[in-house]
Design goal:
This protein is α/β, with parallel strands linked by helices and 204 residues long. Helix content is 32%, strand content 19%. The chain has a 6-stranded mixed sheet. The protein has a two-stranded antiparallel ribbon with strand order 6-7. Strand 2 and strand 3 form a beta hairpin. The radius of gyration is 16 Å and the shape is globular. The relative contact order is 0.24. The active site is at residues 79, 142, 166.
Length: 204
């Protein structure tokens, strides 16, 4: 039985909820015969890395899938690449606001995901869930966590497969944001479940 470590974030930027954790926390504990370990990460540059590293050491997952909020996007978007660059437009939840900083001095400029992101998008679209590949995870904590997972893979856990998926705002987050797209929590959970099923099928 393979193990999938899936992470979501706590709320940030004056939001009271974060769809990533709302969805991750509702996933089944077993999906496609894979053991699902759910972990909430702080929306903080420094401590998110340490919590992720500790969890990987503790659970020895075969796959790490991190999930984050991407307000303004209209679908579930698997990320192609993480870059070695922190540049925050707002402070994180610890008040830290890095600008044009390297994440890991010994790391590559960028790392590509090992997850089958094209097949994930195809699967979700067939289920009538909007989905498209993203080629930028930004330069905030989401990219930071995706990059750190890849750096850990490259330096300590070569058997690991890792990636990141962004999901839109929930409907209740856009009540006062006219024109802003959203996706229901039910579709988020269904989409992430389908994504994990696809990952397990392709990589197990």
């Amino acid at each position: 039985m393979i193990t999938v470590l899936i992470t979501g974030f706590d709320p940030f930027a004056k939001e009271t909820i974060n769809p990533s954790w709302e969805a991750v926390s509702r996933l089944d504990s077993t999906i496609s015969n894979a053991n699902i370990i759910k972990l909430q990460l702080p929306t903080e540059f420094k401590s998110s890395r340490e919590k992720l590293r500790t969890a990987i050491a503790q659970y020895c997952p075969d796959i790490v899938l991190s999930v984050g909020q991407a307000g303004g996007r209209s679908g579930i978007t698997p990320e192609l690449v993480a870059i070695n660059f922190d540049d925050a437009s707002i402070p994180d939840n610890a008040g830290y606001e890095p600008h044009e900083e390297t994440i890991e001095r010994e790391g590559e400029n960028a790392y590509f995901t090992q997850l089958p992101i094209k097949k994930i998008c195809v699967t979700l679209k067939k289920a009538d869930i909007p989905s498209y590949i993203s080629t930028t995870a930004g330069t905030y904590v989401c990219n930071h966590v995706m990059y750190e997972a890849q750096f850990l893979r490259s330096t300590e856990y070569p058997q690991l497969k890792a990636g990141f998926i962004h999901i839109p705002f929930l409907p209740q987050q856009v009540v006062d944001k006219p024109g802003m797209p959203s996706l229901s929590l039910d579709d988020d959970v269904r989409g992430l479940t389908l994504a994990i099923e696809t990952i397990v099928k392709e990589l197990a």
